[in-house]
Amino acid sequence: MANQEAGRSHRAAPVHTDPSEVSVLTALSALADPVRIQLVRELAGSVEWTRGCGSFDVPVGKAALSHHFSVLRGAGLVEQRDQGPRRVNRLRREEFDARFPGLLDLVLRADGTG
């Protein structure tokens, strides 16, 4: 049994915040960081539940990446689930758009110069 347990992940399931419970300041704060914007943009261009946390090309380490995903979950932007050894993600586009119509559209089309 010890050998079976050694191969398993013992991380806690992620906690998700419903977008309907998110303030506009929380949403804006989550979207104010360039790394988080990059994560959201990459998720917006991906099929749901296909992107593992390690598949994003961002200039931060694992601990910082984990923090960024935590902020995005707390703002109701991202949902995560464990799929075998991977934690996969989806952008909660429909739910977030219902709470903050047009906000993600602005973020996703911004060219970053402005």
Percentage of helical residues?
Answer: 40-55%
Poorly predicted ranges (pLDDT <50, ≥5 residues)?
Answer: 1-9
- Under CATH at level 1, the class stands as Mainly Alpha
Q: Count of helical segments?
A: 6
Instruction: Tell me which oligomeric state these chains represent.
Output: single chain
SS content category: alpha+beta
Order of helices and strands: HHHEHEEHH
Name the CATH architecture.
Orthogonal Bundle
User: According to CATH, what is the topology?
Assistant: Arc Repressor Mutant, subunit A
Number of domains: 1
How far apart are the termini? 56 Å
Radius of gyration, in angstroms, nearest whole number: 15 Å
Please name the fourth-level CATH homologous superfamily: Winged helix-like DNA-binding domain superfamily/Winged helix DNA-binding domain
Quick one: overall form?
Answer: globular
Largest β-sheet summary: 3 strands, antiparallel
Structural account:
This protein has 114 residues and is of the alpha+beta class. It has a single domain, classed as Winged helix-like DNA-binding domain superfamily/Winged helix DNA-binding domain (Arc Repressor Mutant, subunit A), CATH 1.10.10.10. It has helices at residues 2-6, 24-30, 34-44, 62-74, 93-99, 103-109, and strands at 51-52, 78-83, 86-91. Strands 1-3-2 form a 3-stranded antiparallel beta sheet. Strand 2 (78-83) and strand 3 form a beta hairpin. The longest helix is centred in the middle third of the chain and has 13 residues, at 62-74. The N and C termini lie far apart (56 Å). The model is unreliable at 1-9 (pLDDT under 50).
